[in-house]
Amino acid sequence: MRFEHPAQQIVFQEYVDAVSDAESRVERRTKQISDLLPSWSLAPVVEAVQAMRGVAFNVAVTVVAEVGDFQRFDNPRQLMAYLELTPSEYSSGATVRRGGITKAGSGLARRALIEGAWSYRMQARVSRKLHDRFEGLPKAVRDIAWKGQLRMCQRYRHLVAAGKAKVVVTTAIAREMVGFIWAIARAVTSPHEVGAPAHS
């Protein structure tokens, strides 16, 4: 782009350089994390949860690092509550009112999941990148991920059609993502506990 006034061109170029610098930093950090990953005990979980749509390398590392041992959660609802992706509740006698999420858990993991949830607005499919991430993963993991994608793409459309705000929809999808991520993590850390999550 070219601007008539030299000052505008200088400011524009500053912005372009700032974006380029930020992208370079992200690439460097991603490579550093990738180099360290094989020595991490949770590396198999990071690899497996990338079978999920919307959970590429950086999201996978972020969520797994924030959660740690998935075995300490007996069911996906416990993990959803840990990440504070469940609605707040106000009770008075027999009346129960549900509000927004409390946002008291890991903001980093929650933000990564909500960003990933946007991908479910598109029709269910296995992209080239997702296909490449499937390579070498157990069939049970691929099956859970595909089941999750079918369910969440359908649910996204249903919630939007019902008139829900997009921020509410993506939060609901992020909550469901946690259930399938839990199931995948348990599948690769405890082979005898393979299964799809119970839905909230």
- Describe the largest sheet: 2 strands, antiparallel
What is the count of distinct domains?
1
Structural class: mainly alpha
- How far do the termini sit from each other? 49 Å
Helix amount: 55-70%
Beta-strand residue percentage: 5-15%
Q: Which value, in Å, is the CA radius of gyration?
A: 20 Å
Strand order of the largest sheet: 1-2
Overall outline: globular
**Uncertain runs with pLDDT below 50, 5 residues or more?**
98-102, 191-196
Overall mean pLDDT: 85
Order of helices and strands: HHHHEEHHHH
Count of runs of 4 or more consecutive helical residues: 8
Number of strands: 2
By oligomeric state, this entry counts as: single chain
Question: Can you characterise this structure?
Answer:
With 200 residues, the chain is mostly helical. The protein has one domain (40-193). The chain has eight helices and two strands; from the N terminus they run H-H-H-H-E-E-H-H-H-H. The chain has helices at residues 6-36, 43-49, 57-67, 76-82, 107-117, 128-134, 139-161, 166-189; strands at residues 87-92, 95-101. A two-stranded antiparallel sheet has the order 1-2. Helix 4 packs across helix 8 and helix 5 packs across helix 8 (166-189). The model is unreliable at 98-102 and 191-196 (pLDDT under 50).
Defining key terms:
Transposase_20; Transposase; two-stranded antiparallel ribbon; globular; DNA binding; mainly alpha; 8 helices; 200 residues; transposase activity
